[in-house]
Amino acid sequence: MPVISSEAAEESREFYGLLGFEEVMNHGWIVTMASPSTPAAQVSFMTSDKTAPVNPDMSVEVDDVDAAYAAVRDSGAEIVHPLQDEEWGVRRFFVRDPNGRVVNVLSHR
Could you tell me if 39 and 56 lie in one domain? Predict the structure, then answer.
């Protein structure tokens, strides 16, 4: 799922609404919209991440975030934000991919 850094939350909500997306999450600093017919098709926009030092470029949900963290760490990839439980119900970490993009890797608890 792409994550767009944005200071235009209301405008973004309206724009993606024109494309048929509906708001499925809003924490004030991040809004996620999804297609009602294909709920896995999502886009998020955020002002700044609540607990991480940078905004991710995308999010990838995995079945086992602890196993993904171990594999990525062992590969030598740069961990940008450590593995941790977040108050909004996810366990996540950020890693930099080979293209320099920051990926939020998460599992819902």
Answer: no
Q: Residue 39's closest CA among 52, 22, 55, 58? A: 22
Whether 35 and 55 map to the same domain: the answer is: no
Distance CA 83, CA 65 (A): 8
Residue 96 φ then ψ, to 5°: -90, 125
Do 27 and 74 lie in a common domain?
A: no
Residues 75 and 93 in one domain: yes
Residue 4: pLDDT band (50, 70, 90) is: very high
**pLDDT of 76-109, one tens digit each?**
999 999 999 999 999 999 999 988 999 999 999 8
